[in-house]
Design brief:
95 residues; alpha+beta; Outer Surface Protein A, domain 3; 3-stranded antiparallel beta sheet; 3 helices; 39% helix; globular
Length: 95
């Protein structure tokens, strides 16, 4: 019997500085000092990732928060945001 693969989780990169101005979020990547503007979905995702969460948990939470939005669209938006934030080292992947 093979062991199940560990669940991949995402959490904020603690080295990234965040600033919120009104409803907008800006992140500063520590190595290059590059500034990133987060859209509404990415801002909500950033606020949610104060602790490690799986993609399924994130999608389920966002679907519950936005019941009138198609769950497949939410899932695709979350996947795109996680991919982008991971590629820029704004979030850390565990597992």
């Amino acid at each position: 019997m093979t062991a199940a693969a560990p669940v991949r989780t995402y959490i904020r990169n603690p080295a990234v500085a965040a600033t919120e101005i009104d409803a907008e979020t800006f992140l500063v990547e520590p190595d290059e000092g590059e500034v990133f503007y987060l859209d509404e979905i990415s801002s909500a995702l950033w606020r949610f990732l104060t602790e490690a969460r799986s993609e399924n948990e994130i999608v389920e939470t966002f679907c519950a928060a936005f019941p009138d939005t198609d769950s497949e669209k939410i899932s695709a938006d979350i996947r795109a945001a996680l991919d982008d934030m991971s590629a820029r080292a704004l979030v850390v992947i565990r597992g």
